[in-house]
Amino acid sequence: MDLAVRQLAEKQHGLFTTEQVHLVGSSRKAVRHALAAHEIIRLTRGLYVLADHYPSTTVERHLQLARGALLLVPDGVLSHWTALLAHGIPVVTVPPEVRLRRPVSSEVRRKGQVRRAGIVIDAGADDAVRASPHGPTVAISTALLQHAKSRGVEEGLASADAAVRAALVPRRELVEKAAADVGPHSRRGRRGRRAC
User: Fold this and answer.
1) What is the pLDDT of residue 125?
2) Which of the two residues, 110 and 125, has the higher pLDDT score?
3) What is the pLDDT of residues 165-194, one digit of tens each?
4) How would you list the strands of the sheet with 40-44, edge to edge?
5) Strand 47-50 and strand 98-102: pairing?
6) Which stretches of the chain are DSSP H helices?
7) Cα 37 off chain centre by
8) DSSP one-letter code for 187
């Protein structure tokens, strides 16, 4: 692997993008050679990780892809289960795709969602962005509601219970957020609210 690319990747938890390869003066040919030599692993289109930085567990791989997604989409914030995992909140099942939210762009506005292998980008900005060890996230209460609406009441409640027990979010905030929610699958959030 090109030394300049390796040094860059080491500063980014082993991650780098195709765009960054060009910025440090390397080439696509060098990337193809490193892939063939199993020095790097392609995580998704335009995103790679040094092979010796590829994690062994599903949660660690998900969080690594989340960090990489933020390299590809710098104005994004982690959402749904990805935000929960970034804050150390367990989820029953780790879905294969990382979820991001970003301010509405023309690309997202046209399609509603942008998908690439392993990453889903939704339109919309959150009023409360929270820092995590893995990057910015939506508010934990928002992520819990998104998770329940996407994955179902049982999975949502398991994560909400863990977050409340860890004092990461007050129970009252969750109840209020679920009560105020409208839109697709909002009934799931309200059902979870009654169980809280």
Assistant:
1) 66
2) 125
3) 999 999 999 888 888 766 655 555 545 545
4) 15-17, 47-50, 40-44
5) unpaired
6) 3-10, 18-23, 28-36, 58-72, 80-86, 106-111, 140-151, 153-165, 171-180, 186-195
7) 29
8) H
C-alpha count within 13 angstroms, C-beta hemisphere, residue 6: 9
Cβ-based neighbours of 134, under 8 Å, separated by 6 or more? 63, 66, 67, 78, 85, 86
Whole-number pLDDT of residue 113: 63
Q: Quick check: 196 pLDDT over 90? A: no
Predicted confidence at residue 140, as pLDDT, reads 95
- The pair phi, psi for residue 38, each rounded to 5°, is 60, 30
Q: Yes or no: say if 44 and 67 are a contact pair by the CB < 8 Å rule.
A: no
- Separation in Å, CA 66 to CA 97, 98, 110, 127, 175: 9, 6, 24, 21, 28
| Max intra-chain CA distance, the chain | 57
- Rounded-to-integer distance, Cα 186 and Cα 188, Å: 5
